[in-house]
Amino acid sequence: MILGLDISTTCIGYCVYDEKNILDKNAIKLEGEFYNRVDVALKEIDRIVDGWKIKKVHIEDFLMKFAIGKSSAFSINKLIAFNSILSYHLYKKNLIIKRYNVLTARKVLFGQAKNKFYKNSKEFVLEMLRKKLGQEYIDTLPLNTRGNIAVESYDINDAVVMALQK
User: Fold this and answer.
1) pTM to 2 decimal places
2) How much is the pLDDT for 76?
3) Under a CB-based contact definition with an 8 Å cutoff, are residues 79 and 9 in contact?
């Protein structure tokens, strides 16, 4: 059983995959101060790992460069610390952990990492998952109050990309 994770300090997308089917996918929303977020994340991840008897964890590797206008040294350091705490916790549970660069993972799964015809990478991943898994996959993603795909769905999609890696 594989757990795919897209870890951030505000929302963790996750996907449980048995190497044939997606069995569960969702997002863990996090709020409050840093250590409260760590506590909530660890409890939820333990619930998933223990409940599904996870053996492997595929994690989207954290950023290693600045995204102009989107990241600061402080936010990248916070993300690395958060990701490292959760990764160490999973390691201590004797799970097999693999990290994947997001662009490499997309290229392996879809044959390309991005496409200039999509307004952003999140829309590209959504469309590629629709093509790979079918409309029924898209229909099960969380919706916002307006009936559109909720923001956390994009974190779930990235976790699905991680789970489907070999």
Assistant:
1) 0.93
2) 86
3) yes
Cα–Cα distance for residue pair 162/133, rounded to 1 Å: 14
Q: How far apart are CA 86 and CA 34, in angstroms?
A: 13
Taking a C-beta distance cutoff of 8 angstroms, is the pair 80, 66 a contact?
no
User: What total of structural domains would you count in the chain?
Assistant: 1
Torsion sign (Cα): 89, 95, 101, 106: negative
**Nearest CA-CA partner of 99 in 21, 7, 20, 1:** 7
pLDDT mean values, one per 10 residues, the chain (166 residues): 97 97 98 98 98 98 62 85 97 97 95 86 95 96 96 97 97
d(CA 146, CA 118): 22
Domain enclosing residue 73, as ranges: 2-163
25: domain CATH number is 3.30.420.10
Q: 12 with 30: CB under 8 angstroms? A: yes
Contact partners, residue 142, CB within 8 Å, separation at least 6: 26, 27, 149, 150, 152, 153, 156
Residue-wise pLDDT for 28-61, tens only, equals 999 999 999 999 999 999 999 999 999 999 999 9
